[in-house]
């Protein structure tokens, strides 16, 4: 009985070692193939996709009217309970006078692009 157990351990150890080696070799080949596949997909799908998106954004920018939309003073927008602690107190920190209106409307600078 002891001989059978020791013989079983030897075979089990040999089988596990061999299966680990096969799994490691297969994993290396599969990871190489997977890396190659993602590299090809990056160049064939992702980069042209980014190019198409850039072209779309550029063409939409060319056809976009650059005028300001009409200001509508909705009561629930641009509520100022206290002034901002910077500047004159009515402009947000990242205020853009071409895009962001003040509570009473757009600023008129006269230098519209």
Report what the structure shows.
The chain is mainly alpha-helical. Helices cover 54% and strands 0% of the residues. The protein is built from 1 helix and no strands. The protein has one helix spanning 2-62. The longest helix has 61 residues, at 2-62.
- Tell me the helix content: 40-55%
Radius of gyration, Cα only, in angstroms?
Answer: 34 Å
Instruction: Classify the secondary structure makeup into a structural class.
Output: mainly alpha
Report the biggest beta sheet as strand number plus sense, adding barrel if it closes. none
State the separation between the terminal residues, measured CA to CA: 95 Å
Q: Approximately how much beta-strand content do the residues carry? A: under 5%
Mean model confidence by pLDDT? 80
Low-confidence stretches: none
What topology emerges from the helices and strands here?
Blueprint: H1 2-62
TL;DR of this structure?
With 113 residues, the chain is mainly α. 54% of the residues lie in helices and 0% in strands.
Features:
113 residues; mainly alpha
